[in-house]
Amino acid sequence: MKRSLIVLFVALSVALCGTAFAMEAIPAEKINCGFVYIGPVGDGGWTYMHDQGRLEMESAFPGLKSSYVESVPEGPDSARVMETFVRNGSKVIFATSFGYMDFVQDVAKRYPDVVFMHCSGYKRADNVGIYFGRMYQARYLSGLVAGKMTKNNVIGFVAAHPIPEVIRGINAFTQGVRKANPEAEVKVVWLFSWFDPGKEKEATKALIDSGADVISMHADSGAAPQTAEEAGVYVVGYNNDMSQYAPTKHLTAPIWDWGIVYKRVIEQVTMGTWKSEDIWWGLKEGMVGLSKYGKDVPEEVKKLVEEEKTRIISGEWDVFDGPIKDQSGTIKVEAGQSLSDGDKLSMNWFVEGVKGDIPK
C-alpha cells in the first residue's frame, strides 16, 4: 500500500523527474479530481481518512467536484480506473496506495497534461508528484503513552506487511515505549495484508494470549481495537480516532490529515504553479498527529507527550537521532548522529526492544 524506499531510489526519482512540467491554471470547476482507493471508504482507517481529506478539499474550493473508486487492487485494475477518470475529464488524479506506483507512471506517460499524485511511492515524472507523511513522529508519541500504560511490560503490535514503512513505524513506536518504560518490549505479529478484519482479530487475540496488555497496530480496520475492547486490554489505534471501536480501552491513535496535501495540490493547479515534488510532512505541518486521549491516560503522560512533541516540532530532536541500538544490541546510529531520510525510508531492521523477525 504505502512506502518502500532504498537510498538508490532517491537518485532514480530525480532522474525520472526530467524537465519542469509547465501547465496553465485550471479553474476548480474544471478539475474533476479522481481518487483511487485501496480499501472501502467505510474501513474506518486508511481509506476512510483519505476520503475525509477529499471532502475537506472539496469544501475548500467552490465548484470543485471529485469522485472515487474504492477497493481497487494494486494491479492492472488501477490503470483501468485511472484511464476511466481521464476519459471522464479528470485533470488531477490521486492514487492512494504504494502498489499503484508503476501503473501511475504508465498512465501518466499517455496523458502528459493530467496531474498525477501518488501516495507513498518513490517514482516521479514531469506530471507525477509523490506525497506521504512522517507518521513515525506520531508513532513515537503514541509509544510514550503505551509504555506508560502497560503493567506487564509486554505490548503487542499487529503489523500489515514487512516493508520499510511498517518497520519504521514499529521502530518509532518502540522508541517511544522504551523512552517511557525501558523495561517494556514490543511483540510483532505479521498479517501480510493491509485490510483483513479476520486476521487482525486473530493476531490481536494471539498477542493478548502471549501476555500483551496494550495493543498497537498498523492495519486498516477497527478489528484490533474492537478485539482489545472485548478482552479488556488497552489499545493504540491507527489512521483515525478508533475510540468508536474501543470506547473504554482506546488510549490514543497516530492519525492522518490528508486534506492538507489535497488542498495544496488543488490550489497550485488552479494557480498554474503545480510542479512535481516529493511531499513528506510531519507534526510541524499538521499532516500527522495524535487523536484525543482515552479517559484513563494520566495527566503526567499527556505532559510527557507534549514535551516530546515540542522537541520534534522545534527541530531540536527527531525520533531516529542516536544513539540507537538494533535488536542484537549493536549501535546502528551513533550519539550525535541522525538517520538520513533515505535510511529511514529503506529501514529493514528492528530497534532494541522489538520482539519478532522481519520476514524476507
UniProtKB/TrEMBL annotation:
Q: Do you know which Pfam families this protein is assigned to?
A: Bmp
Fetch the InterPro entries from UniProt. ABC-Purine-Binding, Peripla_BP_I, PnrA-like
Q: Which domain of life is it from?
A: Bacteria
Signal sequence, start to end: 1-22
Keywords of the record, alphabetical order, are: Lipoprotein, Signal
ABC transporter substrate-binding protein PnrA-like domain mapped to chain residues: 32-316
What are the GO cellular component annotations?
plasma membrane
For whether the record's keyword set contains Mitochondrion, the answer is: no
The answer, when asked if Lipoprotein is one of the entry's keywords, is: yes
Q: What is this protein called?
A: Basic membrane lipoprotein
Q: Which organism is it from?
A: Aminobacterium colombiense (strain DSM 12261 / ALA-1)
Taxonomic lineage of the native organism: Bacteria, Thermotogati, Synergistota, Synergistia, Synergistales
